[in-house]
Write a structure and sequence with these properties.
Shape: globular
Radius of gyration: 17 Å
Strand order of the largest sheet: 7-4-3-8-9-10
Number of domains: 1
Order of helices and strands: EEEHHHEHEEEHEHEHEH
Distance between the termini: 9 Å
Strand content: 15-25%
CATH topology: Rossmann fold
Helix content: 25-40%
Length: about 230
Amino acid sequence: MMIDLPARPFAAQLAGDGHTALVVIDMQRDFVEPGGFGASLGNDVTLLHSAIAPIAALLAAWRARGWPVLHTRECHLPDLSDCPPAKRERGHPSLRIGEPGTMGRLLIAGEAGADIIPALYPAANEWVIDKPGKGMFWATGLHERLQAAGISHLVFAGVTTEVCVQTSMREANDRGYDCVIVEDATESYFPEFKRAAIDMITAQGAIVGWCATSSQVLAALGAGKNQHLEP
């Protein structure tokens, strides 16, 4: 069953019957809450908060249908062996990856700050992918898991739009997945970067993927119950 979805630059489709996964990128305390890595870079973390309610609504819809949900966490091993100097030494944060912050060592697996925020915490049966890079496929084995589960379509939410979300969408597009980014369920510390990233994703005939609002996605899922099975 294919579900029609109003989107830009033109209408998209989602695969029903559990073949479309919801992907929630990096909604971690280190990025969303004060005292984490995002704040150490000098960012206003409250700019990401508007995405929380739309993501929660999408999670509720996927969970009600028993469809696959995966959450990613950008984090590193405690010894930083999977964090190259080119990443750790970039920029001018007040604290670097691995240094102690108010929620433990920044972006280190197992620390409180690296975990998902309570409002969007994964359910027991949902996938949680720890990724050492910005994209969700690098060094994670995720492509093989998605293929084994028969997932062909991905709906993206999370932060930040222009970095980890866009990188993951581009990686997914290269691997043959049809991708939709949910406009109000993704955010950036820089609103102009979010706009530019979505424009790049949807340009040239949805060269990377489509964009829809959470309301459009939820309405399409409701209408999808009445759509016909494709021959």
